[in-house]
Amino acid sequence: MNNxxxxxxxxxxxxxxxxxxHTDPLPEETEIAVIGAGFTGLWTAYYLKKRQPxxxxxxVEAYTxxxxxxxxxxxxxxxxxxxxxxxxxxxxxxxGAQALQRQMFDTVDEIGRVxxxxxxxxxxxxxxWLHVARYPFHVGELQQWIQEKHEQxxxxxxxxxxxxxxxxxxxxxxxxxxxxxxxxxxxVQPARLARGLADTVRSMGVRILENTPATExxxxxxxxxxGEIRARHILRATEGxxxxxxxxxxxxxxxxxxxxxxxxxPEHIWEEIGLSKRxxxxxxxxxxxxxxxxxxxxxxxxxxxxxxxxxxIRRSIGFDNEHVEVVRQTLxxxxxxxxxxxxxxxxxxxxxxxxxxxxxxxxxxxxxxxWAGGYVGEGVAATNLAARTLVDLVLERDTPLSRxxxxxxxxxxxxxxxxxxxGSKFIRWMNYQADKAEARTEKAARPWHWLxx
Length: 453
Prior knowledge:
Elements: H1 10-13, E1 29-35, H2 39-51, E2 57-60, E3 76-78, H3 84-88, H4 94-117, E4 129-132, H5 136-151, E5 159-162, H6 164-170, E6 179-182, E7 185-187, H7 190-203, E8 207-209, E9 214-218, E10 221-224, E11 227-236, E12 253-262, H8 267-273, E13 280-282, E14 289-293, E15 299-307, H9 322-334, E16 343-353, E17 360-363, E18 369-373, H10 382-394, H11 419-441, H12 448-452
Parallel strand pairs: 1-2, 1-11, 2-8, 4-13, 11-18
Antiparallel strand pairs: 3-7, 4-6, 5-6, 9-10, 10-11, 12-15, 12-16, 14-15, 17-18
């Protein structure tokens, strides 16, 4: 027993000792090969076996379950889909967008239901999401956002405005001028969820091949560093690591996000800060941040970071990274009282960004090839719904899920280098300039607001 992955994130480190990973023999053939043992792949395997227990399902994993974004993210299990407004703006997909939104709300509860039913202790708590107004112009923007949600079919129970007195009672935040509150959001310890799912699907008869990096996917065959596996269906669930597959370099942009975690904080600090129901929180700045209170009373804060040339991928990122330091400073700017406490962990992870900036689900019944992914950092819950959607497509079930608008929404490929790198750096620079100007003036920054808003 050891924990060779403890440097990946606080979440992995807190698991303590892990069983030795085994490199099992490759089967010559399997009915369904799922590539990637993150949330998408594990949920896909879970629902395949739930729907049809006699299926032979194999999950092919380069390292260990939860190694990628699933074990390194901020733990927000939110009833949101990045890019859903695109579907609402199109009259042909508006009804489908409403169905997708309601399904996402239910998915937050579904993850809680499965965790309880399968005895997965992932520290699930449904406290909702506080989207905090820091500057006066944020108030109107967030109230307008709530109004748009109501016009899209959501209710006051789903999204409502909290005046500063009520919002401040939930979270003592720098310059708290009120908050948009979304009830359909929970928090989890993501590595515990990923590892628990892996144990669960193994008990259902799913084969998980650890230490088996896939190198190329073609109809009927999965090519790995250890040999080939024949499969009728091959389902890609590789998210930010998609670029490691032959021919997929421009399919998904691997974008880094950085996170820090404090030591466990004393109760009097939490009485001052709030988050008594373990609500998650952020604010409308463009360089996105996201925070939560862990089960063991740590403060965890993350922030979107950067893209590396040529879709570069690092095994792990530590305290010495400049973007981790930016997140650490942001934490202290929001909560100066935490300056007296140790920040024990700093890490980074990849999220997958498709060219459309919204997730999609696809399956070709003729070739058996399919995928689900592209969550743009909002995948802890969306992976569950995407997996259930993909399972219905594979099993050729005509269901409300198989008719959701993200089915078959195939994104075009990203531009070649150096355009990817230049574009990503320029967008980040614009967003940084807008955030800096608004922090200085407490007014919407123009022209940055027009360019990035």
